[in-house]
Amino acid sequence: MQPTPLKFQLKSVSETALITLWSRAVEQKQAEPILIDTMATSMLDRIDYDFTKFESAWKSQVGVCIRAKLIDDQVREFMQKYPDAVVVSLGAGLDSRFFRVDDGRVHWYDVDLAPVIEMKKKFIQPQERYTMFSGSMFETDWMETMLSNQAPILVIIEGVLMYFDAEDVSDLLLEIVDTLVGATIIFDSIHPHLVSHSDKHDSVKHMDAPFKWGIKDKHAITAIDSRLQVVEVKSLFDFYPKRWRWVWYVTRVPAFKRLMCGCIYTVVCQKS
């Protein structure tokens, strides 16, 4: 007997969690999936939502999975370097990264608004080293919890910042660098050119969550505060060329690559 489908009312930015969930779930049908996430499939099958609206959003689907895979790999590297690390994922949505990368020692926190966390708890239960934190990433409660662990800290902000105003993003990064000295932040960004075209984006156009923030390059990050040291930048277009189809060839032209850019930034919060 099939479980009764669960219907949820997610709005605005919170609803975009369903894009990333769908992307990871349908990836499991690929002959050679970019990442393995069977938990995403089981969640998708239980949710009463019109996912058919994303059927033509193959660029988003590929981008989400490449981004997730690259960040997964970076998290694993961080945990190898710091076996007792603390990882916090801000705006975590319905992500199941903890279960993909758990090394048996990491202490993990997923932070998101109450409606999203309540939805997630229908599928995933907290564990000894896995905590779901209900609240806004712009509040400081989660930071105090991170400091109490007295361990190296990794902050992940995936698929979130582009939906907020530049001032909000700057305030958040400043709060992190002020409070979590020495922490590493991994986040992604789009080019400002794409911010003004969210109504044409293949998946976001279906939601009330327009893009608001993007940056041209790493200098925009250090301009916020010189203590934000960018140690690595990865473009999504440099990976899995066959999956990008014609987009990969277009992005071999540097000017087009910059305009279409989806990049992952790794930043270390230095002392003053």
Strand order of the largest sheet: 3-2-1-4-5-7-6
The helix/strand class is alpha/beta
Q: Which series of helices and strands comes N to C? A: HHHHEHEHEHEHEHHEHHHE
Number of separate domains = 1
Q: Give the mean pLDDT.
A: 94
Largest sheet: 7 strands, mixed
Radius of gyration: 18 Å
Q: Could you give the distance between the termini?
A: 60 Å
The CATH class: Alpha Beta
Low-confidence stretches: none
Overview of the molecule:
With 272 residues, the chain is α/β, with parallel strands linked by helices. The chain has a single domain, classed as Vaccinia Virus protein VP39 (Rossmann fold, 3-Layer(aba) Sandwich). Helices cover 39% and strands 16% of the residues. A seven-stranded mixed sheet has the order 3-2-1-4-5-7-6, sandwiched between helices. Helix 6 links the parallel strand 2 (107-112) and strand 3. The longest helix is centred in the first third of the chain and has 24 residues, at 58-81. It is globular and about 50 Å long.
Write a brief structural summary.
The chain has one domain: 3-Layer(aba) Sandwich (Rossmann fold), CATH 3.40.50. The chain is 39% helix and 16% strand.
Strand and helix map with partners:
Elements: H1 12-15, H2 17-27, H3 38-46, H4 58-81, E1 86-90, H5 97-101, E2 107-112, H6 114-120, E3 130-134, H7 141-148, E4 153-157, H8 166-179, E5 184-190, H9 192-195, H10 219-224, E6 228-235, H11 241-244, H12 246-250, H13 254-259, E7 262-269
Parallel strand pairs: 1-2, 1-4, 2-3, 4-5
Antiparallel strand pairs: 5-7, 6-7
Helix pairs in contact: 2-3, 2-4
